[in-house]
Structure formats: C-alpha cells, structure tokens
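TL;DR need structure tokens for one chain.
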Amino acid sequence: MIKSRAAMLWGPEDKNWSVEDIEIDEPRGRELLVRNVASGLCHSDEHFITGDMPHGGYPWIAGHEGAGIVEAVGPDVKDLKVGDHVVYSFVAACGTCQSCAEGHSNLCDNGHLIMSGRMLDGTSRIRARGQDALVMAGLGTFAHHCVVHEWSAVKVLEDLPLDKLCLLGCGATTGWGSAVYAAEVKPGDNVAVVGVGGLGSAAVQGARLAGAERIFAIDPVEFKRESAQRFGATHTANSVEEAFELIQQETWGRMCNKVILTMGVGSGDMMAQIMAITSKRGRVVVTNIHPWNEPSNNIPMIDLTLSEKQVVGSLFGSANPRSDIPRLAELYRKGQLDLDGMITRTYTLEDINQGYQDMRDGKNIRGVIMYD
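>> reply
TL;DR here they are.
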C-alpha cells in the first residue's frame, strides 16, 4: 500500500473538488501502478459537478486525460514494465472483442466494464477516509498515482514530454479524430467547428491536416477564436447564427461539408441552426456531451431525406487508441500537431478548483495539472 493525494467529490451537492490523502493498494492481475506526471482539466470531468453526466457513486475521483510512468506491475501484465512512459486511453481497449477486431476499439465491448469506476473484478484499489473510492474511466488522473488496467495504458517513447502528451489521452485525440475519422474531412472541404476549446482546437488541426479549404471556428470567447486561427482556422464567428451569413457568403451558398460539434455542453435546441450551416450531403459530427436527461432536440428531419444530410456521433474521435496515440505523438514530434499551444496554463493539484474556474471563465484552451 502507498499513500498519495487526490481531488475528490463526496456527494452530488459538492461543487468543488476536495484534495486529500488517499491510500492505494498494489496492482493485481494485469494492473499497473502509475505515477502521474500530468493530467488535463477536461470539460467532461466538470459534467460530474453539473450533473450532466451520471456516474457510479461516491466518493469519486475524476480525471481521465493523463500520462505517467509505470512504478509497479501486477503479476499478469504482458506488455508493459516498470519505467515505461504511458498515456492513458480513457476508453480501455482489450484488443480482442468484436468491436476491437473490427477496428473500433474506442467502443471496446470489454473496456466499458471499467467505465463504472471499479476494477474488472468489481473492487476498488483506492481508499479515502476509510471508504473505497471510485475512479473515472478506471483511471482517476486527478491523483498523484493511479492503479489502472493494462488495457488503459498506451506506451509512448521516453524522449517525448508527458506533460504535453497527456492531451492525447482525450482532448487532442478526440478532436483530431472527430475531423479525420468521424467527419472524414477531405481536401477542399468547408468545415465548421462549433466550440474551439480543447476538443475544438484539435478538430481544427485535424481538419487542416486533412486538407480542408476553409475552416470556420465558432465560439463566443474571443480568446478562443483568436487561438483557433493559430491552429489553422481561416474564418471565425462568435455564434452559429452569426456564422450562417459568413459561411453562405464564403462558400457561395454551398455551406459546410462537415460540421463538428465540440462545445463544452451540447444543446438539442441548437440543432436546427447547426443543420442550416450544413451543406447538402453534409455531415454533422456530435462529439460533445449532451446532458444525459436532455428531453429532445430540434433536428429538422426533412433535411435527412431531401438533402441527404447526416448526423453521427463520435466517442474518442472514433480513434483506435493503441494506434492513434503513438501516431499523434509522432505528429507532435514533427511539428504537425501543436500540443504546446493548446496548453494555456498549468496548475498544482491543490489549484484544481481555480483551474476549472478558469475553464468556465473562458481563459483556457486547456489547463493541465502538473504533479511532482
């Protein structure tokens, strides 16, 4: 058993993270004990405070976008060893189920069992105040240490900085994949990205690398619109309504072939406006989380038939973590994927609540917790 520190929620009434001592058991079976180097402050973790996303109970350690160094391995670990540098995949991928075999390991049939917050055997490895703690996505990166299943860790080369590669565990891969895989952006496409925080900034970069002709970055925060231009956006607008006329003018009325939704929280009430900026045979990719109890949306269904428009969902950017995390790490090495520019500020674990306030205030593309 080791002692560590984590940021936790103790009940649905909590609106701030409580940073306190935890106890962690040694890894069992195919589990790893990892010393975290960095963790991104993703909006998905905020959903547990706002109630937009349910989870398995309390106490709860969130955090799912991280990277670290393996300190111990369970007796059945096959592919990793002490000292390996790893980036977490927030969707565990077993590699052998039907979804993995078909090339959709982001939808791993076995990995979803870890999403409950417990290990595969149904138990917890972490205790706080004498109680078993649950961890987000089988990770819980808002802690100095994690015990994770081998399925959740992807080895990366040791000469690359983990404080940058941590973004590949969720935001950078999700946004990039939303453009390249889910949207299937092609050379010459007109693309709109709605919401250009962490996910959207990566989606803009993915669209640029895929050869989009015009990339419209839509966000109410001026700082994010300006940043999006550095990542490859050619035009900006502060709302979908404002973007309509701009897109109509710039595309000669053809509108956008691909529209990627990467807002902090999706809204079904916006779908009619979003469909209006989508071209005939265009595709809308819904990557952002919608409130789990959202009652309805206003998609004009006639668009699907008469204009052959598509609305598709995307988890983890429809990427395959074991191949795409190393792929994107190499793009970062070559200067083709800007992770440094996506990180606006860094924080200590004790400053996590300030980090999330900065996110709410629109001050960050991505905040990152740095561990000792």
